[in-house]
Amino acid sequence: MLARPEESLGMPAAKPMRRLRLLIPRSFNSDAAVVVSPTIRSFGISWALPRMAADTLLGWWNWPGKLSSSIWNLAPLCLMWCLWRERNGRTFEDMESSDDQLLASFSGTLFDWSRAWGLTSNFNVRSFYNKLRRPLPIIFPWKGVWKVKAPRRVSFFVWTVVWNKILTGDNLRGRGMVFVDWCIMCRGDGETVDHLLLHCSKAHKLWSLVFRSFGISWVLPRTAADTLLGWWNWPGKLSSSIWNLAPLCLMWCLWRERNGRTFEDMESSDDQLLASFSGTLFDWSRAWGLTSSESLPLFLNSLLL
Ligand SMILES: [Zn+2]
Hints:
Helices cover about 60% and strands about 0% of the residues. By secondary structure, the chain is mainly α. The chain folds into 2 domains: about 5-135, no CATH class; about 140-305, no CATH class. The model is unreliable at about 1-30 (pLDDT under 50). The site of zinc ion has 7 residues, from loops. Pfam families: zf-RVT.
């Protein structure tokens, strides 16, 4: 049974594990983004939430490095709790907090709980709240672009991608050009940078191949910048130069294919596109001495190790 929300205001009555069981089945809704994204960034990191609450908590616990703190571990529970309380207020009591009120209530609750558990002596609720309220800074993923061993022109290309400056349909329209708004890859949605390179069905096939090859499961963030930020030196065995190279290679291959279709009326099949991407990644990895594999199949197998 859920405790009455007001009973736990200020003090966690139950041990966190009990709350965890209560709240795991509830996944985030879009309103949650108001609190979730600023919270993650207020700890100075960038992370795209997994699709499921359970996966979020699995990935969250004792985040590598300086984030392995008790307050960090407490934050998602507190956050889900505040969202659930807000949702119940709206559903049953016709009470609705503004975004600012919700952020303030979350900061206050996290502060109270941290103090009650002796986790902090210097947690400053006002500065935490102010940090949450500030508009999200644009963090440029410079390592993910410039420290990757990739051909220079590819790094330049991805750099313009991050600044949303490549000449996709939406950007051309911004310059006053008039044409049909569609994506030549999937023949559907309009062509924006993030659609073309991340969320288009053709792009999705390539990203899935990468995730399968490296044996991981991850949901792509909304923008290319966030993708590269979260990608760089993935914890553990994935901190390899080939891993860091993969998104640049992928975006480059997609862009080449898109240009082939747009300007030269040449179209690769899905299989050809996948093969061209794997082949390019293999060639670049060999050219930079990142792999000792002698053939493409051996190379692909080596990624899983
Ligand atoms: Zn598309």
